[in-house]
Specification:
Elements: E1 2-4, E2 7-13, H1 25-33, E3 39-47, E4 52-55, E5 58-62
Parallel strand pairs: 2-3, 3-5
Antiparallel strand pairs: 1-2, 4-5
């Protein structure tokens, strides 16, 4: 979890080569549990495959996005 001024970015880490919406269920549940003092700006599933959208404000991004080779 990354936070700045009440705005959050949730990170989920996976070892698989493909991520789909079910891999973001923890992020989705966390978003639903938030009160009014915090806003989830983005949810990101880091994995071994390609970048792709998973839904509103949810993205699957490759590991190399965070750790260049």
């Amino acid at each position: 979890m990354l936070e700045k001024d009440g705005q959050l970015v949730a990170l989920e880490l996976k070892t698989s080569r493909r991520a789909d919406q079910k891999d973001a269920t923890g992020i989705t549940a966390f978003r639903a549990s938030l009160g009014r003092t915090c806003t989830l700006r983005r949810g990101v599933v880091l994995h071994g495959g390609q970048a792709r959208p998973l839904g509103a404000g949810l993205w699957a991004l490759p590991w190399r996005w965070m750790v260049p080779e």
